[in-house]
Amino acid sequence: MTRFSGDLFDGVTSRAHPVTAWIEAGRLHIEGDGIALTLPLDAIGLAPPVGAARGVVHLPDARELHSTDLAALAALAQALPSRDPERWARRLESRLGYALAALLVSVLVMFAGLRWGVPAAAQLAAHTLPAGLDSRIGRESLALMEKISFQPSALPAARQQALAQQLAARCRQQACPPYRLLFRHSPMFGANALTLPGGTVVVTDALVDLAQHDEEILAVLAHELGHVQHRHSLRLALQGIGAGAILVAVTGDIGSVTDLAAGLPSLLLQSGYSRDMEREADAYALAWLNAACIPPQRFADLLGRLDKKSSGTPSLLGSHPGTQERTGPFQVAGDCT
Ligand SMILES: [Zn+2]
Fold first, then answer.
1. Least confident window among 31-35, 245-249, 262-266, 268-272
2. How far apart are CA 59 and CA 63, in angstroms?
3. Is 100 part of a structural domain of the chain?
4. By residue range, what is the domain housing residue 21?
5. pLDDT of 288
6. Does residue 117 sit within a domain?
7. What is the structure's pLDDT at 319?
8. 138 and 66 within one domain
9. Which of 88, 115, 118, 213 has its C-alpha lying 20 to 30 A from 21's C-alpha?
10. Ligand 1: distance of its center to the CA of 303 in Å?
11. 19 near 31, Cβ under 8 Å?
């Protein structure tokens, strides 16, 4: 085989080292300035050149040999042991019919991916991302919302404390996910409660004012704890950035944390949680209220009042599923024992 030229990357730095390579006696030889490698063919892999791009020969220790000499790379591919699973892909790429069919399949897969894949990927990612990342996204979202949508609560400190203590007391009696409760005044969010990644639950003054019984507030908090438990706000943030970025987030690009945090406030404000997420949080709340001996009707009462008052902003109600449908399961006598 004739010699061909390329660039060697050492897998440590991004510097390209010009080299000459050839196969001799069943081994790949690479030589350059201060470089002399002899590698068995079964230790190397070949990524097929797609279109006119350069081909990449994968070498042990994360080193790579890049070359634009496609003829030489084709010869190298022939010389490699037949385990090369990518050979069929090259054959497919070379045929237009297959390429067009593949394009059609790609479009369909992309469509299906956006429709079903993004929520599924977000759900999966939400449960695989390390917990520390949740908290970080939550902190950044909160910092942003403190600037644009929250003002300090006007509720007396004693009132805030009393509500926080009631929740804490219930959470000593039954398992609650880790949470942090905050009270804020927010004309933007109206009478509302929202959950941020990492377990921060924010209750607005207007919601507290709307409630006619503290147990109604606890019922809403139970619903928010359902969102905490199922990591819904992280899922919402992930869905907002789409499938590609989810992948980046999962593979650990920390820069995307800021994107996630930045997008969350408007997602919470504009689209809110999906119907399924609200149902999950409702189911959690119903079980929680029964365990806490709080009549589930309290939740239905507050939701009904919110519904009358709602001005189209997605609230903890969401605009869906319908309030009627949602409050049905709560309009029962509790099965407190
Ligand atoms: Zn909700």
1. 245-249
2. 5
3. no
4. 4-85
5. 94
6. no
7. 44
8. no
9. 88
10. 11
11. yes
Instruction: Determine the distance separating the centroid of ligand 1 and the alpha carbon of 193, expressed in angstroms.
Output: 8
The model's confidence at residue 183, banded by pLDDT at 50, 70 and 90, is: very high
Determine the distance separating the centroid of ligand 1 and the alpha carbon of 195, expressed in angstroms: 8
Question: Which residue carries 């959470």 as its tokens?
Answer: 171
Q: How far is the CA of 269 from the centre of ligand 1 (A)?
A: 12
Mean pLDDT for the stretch of residues 104-129: 70
| Distance from residue 322's CA to the centre of ligand 1 (Å) | 13
Q: Report whether 198 contacts 246 (CB < 8 A).
A: no
Q: What integer is the mean pLDDT of 4-19?
A: 89
Q: What is the pLDDT of residue 298?
A: 92
What is the number of other CB atoms lying within 10 angstroms of the CB of residue 29? 16
Ligand 1 midpoint to CA 112 (Å): 26
Residues 158 and 245 reside in one and the same domain: yes
Distance from the CA of 273 to the center of ligand 1, in angstroms?
A: 7
In a domain, residue 337? The reply is no
What's the one-letter identity of residue 175?
A
More confident residue, 215 or 246: 215
List the CATH number of the domain containing 15. Answer: 2.30.29.30
151 and 43 both lie in a single domain:
no
CB 282 within 8 A of CB 226: yes
Mean pLDDT of the chain: 81
Residues 188 and 60 reside in one and the same domain: no
How many angstroms separate the alpha carbon of residue 312 from the centre of ligand 1?
Answer: 15
In angstroms, what is the span from residue 177 Cα to ligand 1's centroid?
Answer: 16
Give the pLDDT band (50/70/90) at residue 240: confident
Are residue 140 and residue 21 in the same domain, yes or no?
Answer: no
Burial class, 38, CB count within 10 angstroms (exposed 0-12 / middle 13-18 / buried 19+): exposed
Question: Residue 221's closest CA among 208, 210, 230?
Answer: 208
CA–centroid distance, residue 224 to ligand 1 (Å): 6
Looking at the domain assignment, is residue 107 inside a domain? no
Percentage with pLDDT > 90 across the chain: 32
CA of 260 to the centre of ligand 1 (A): 19
- What pLDDT, on the 0 to 100 scale, is given for residue 99? 72
What is the rounded distance in angstroms from the CA atom of residue 318 to the CA atom of residue 274? 8
